[in-house]
């Protein structure tokens, strides 16, 4: 049968010094088969987190960590309390105890106070988790101003909408036409992820209006058609700022062949974008 023959005949308590913190004011209370250990962590603050271990040497043996304990112990003990306590269910761990030496150790594992209080110290930020991007965009063909938005993690998606006049190209007798939108949709892949700097590769499709004529010397009629084409680009994130460039190209060959028209608008364009990420 488990029993305590001469419990706490010899009792000594040690405090652990870790990262300038001290465990002090240890008090021991015995109630039947249970031992309550009360202690203080000096100079602890509410925004600090400690790893607390309670070890003991039973009957002169090696120091071992107690298993059957509850209370303020483990890896998530918050600082700032006036007093802490641990209860040990003795007979769950040992059959007999004639003498016990305790060791209480408190290790500071997180201190938000030091980050706030230290001048020039900036709390760490998971910059790669700032995945929402909102950017102002300006497409060279037009030019057409607009907006690019995206959610960009390891993989992501980005959408661009711009609007402006459709360029006439090299036809001297035709003016830029209307106020036409252009849409771009891209799949993104993060290819660089280092501290505050991330770089994403973008590839997708853009749909934009082109001006068509019967011939390049013609003054009309003017035909305007939306022509899809591939686009590719890079978007960069530096701290809270994001910026990028996208190149696009349109192939009007099918429309020219089927309708006997000639595209006069520029077939290639680039878009610059600048904004923020959240």
Notes on the structure:
The chain is mainly beta. It has two domains: 107 residues, Immunoglobulin-like (Sandwich), CATH 2.60.40; 151 residues, Porin, CATH 2.40.160. Helix content is 5%, strand content 60%. The protein is built from two helices and 19 strands. The strands form three sheets. The protein has an eight-stranded antiparallel barrel with strand order 11-12-13-14-15-16-17-19. A hairpin with a 2-residue loop joins strand 16 and strand 17. The longest helix is centred in the C-terminal third of the chain and has 7 residues. It is rod-shaped.
Question: What's the quick description here?
Answer:
The protein is built from two helices and 19 strands. It is mostly beta strands. The protein folds into two domains: 11-117, Sandwich (Immunoglobulin-like); 127-277, Porin (Beta Barrel).
Set down the secondary structure blueprint:
Elements: E1 11-15, E2 17-18, E3 21-31, E4 34-42, E5 48-58, E6 64-65, E7 69-71, E8 74-78, E9 84-89, E10 100-111, H1 112-117, E11 132-139, E12 144-152, E13 155-166, E14 177-194, E15 197-213, E16 223-238, E17 241-249, H2 253-259, E18 262-263, E19 268-277
Parallel strand pairs: 1-10
Antiparallel strand pairs: 2-3, 3-4, 4-9, 5-6, 5-8, 5-10, 7-9, 11-12, 11-19, 12-13, 13-14, 14-15, 15-16, 15-18, 16-17, 17-19
């Amino acid at each position: 049968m488990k029993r305590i023959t001469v419990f706490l005949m010899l009792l000594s308590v040690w405090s652990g010094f870790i990262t300038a913190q001290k465990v002090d004011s240890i008090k021991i209370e015995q109630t039947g088969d249970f031992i309550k250990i009360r202690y203080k962590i000096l100079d602890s603050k509410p925004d600090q987190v400690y790893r607390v271990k309670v070890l003991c040497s039973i009957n002169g043996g090696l120091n071992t960590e107690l298993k059957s304990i509850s209370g303020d112990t483990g890896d998530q003990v918050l600082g700032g309390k006036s007093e802490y306590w641990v209860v040990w269910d003795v007979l769950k761990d040992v059959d007999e105890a004639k003498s016990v030496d305790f060791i209480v150790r408190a290790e500071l594992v997180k201190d938000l106070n030091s980050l706030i209080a230290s001048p020039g110290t900036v709390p760490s930020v998971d910059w790669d988790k700032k995945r929402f991007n909102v950017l102002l965009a300006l497409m060279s063909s037009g030019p057409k101003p607009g907006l690019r938005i995206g959610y960009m993690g390891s993989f992501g998606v980005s959408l661009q909408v711009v609007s402006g006049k459709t360029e006439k190209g090299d036809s001297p007798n035709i003016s830029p036409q209307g106020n036409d939108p252009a849409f771009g949709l891209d799949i993104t892949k993060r290819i660089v992820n280092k501290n505050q700097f991330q770089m994403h590769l973008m590839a997708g499709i853009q749909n934009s209006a082109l001006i068509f004529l019967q011939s390049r010397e013609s003054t009309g009629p003017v035909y305007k058609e939306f022509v899809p084409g591939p686009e590719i680009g890079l978007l960069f994130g530096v701290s809270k700022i994001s910026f990028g460039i996208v190149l696009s190209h349109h192939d009007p060959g099918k429309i020219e062949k089927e309708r006997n028209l000639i595209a006069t608008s520029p077939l290639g364009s680039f878009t610059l974008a600048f904004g923020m990420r959240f």
